[in-house]
Design brief:
Blueprint lengths: L1 H29 L3 E2 L11 E2 L2 H28 L1
Antiparallel strand pairs: 1-2
Helix pairs in contact: 1-2
């Protein structure tokens, strides 16, 4: 029962992460929001910044879906 309740949030979160990361990357490239490598950097080419925004947005949506599933499950048990 609990495993089946986790599929929807997982699929939605994965899809949103992929789409939002591509969107944030496009915005970063279009507006030249790049991390230019220096001596301390682990990358050698300029890299788009802002991917954390997409990850936080997906985390919030995923937790919201889990909470909604939990609340609806509790309501079904009550009535």
């Amino acid at each position: 029962m609990i495993v089946s309740a986790l599929w929807l949030p997982f699929v939605v979160s994965f899809t949103l992460a992929a789409l939002l990361t591509l969107g944030v990357r496009g915005v970063a490239l279009r507006h030249s929001m790049l991390d230019v490598p220096n001596a301390r950097s682990s990358h050698t080419v300029p890299t788009p910044r802002g991917g954390g925004v997409a990850i936080v947005m997906v985390l919030v949506v995923g937790l919201g879906l889990l909470a909604a599933e939990h609340i609806s499950h509790r309501m079904r048990l009550r009535y």
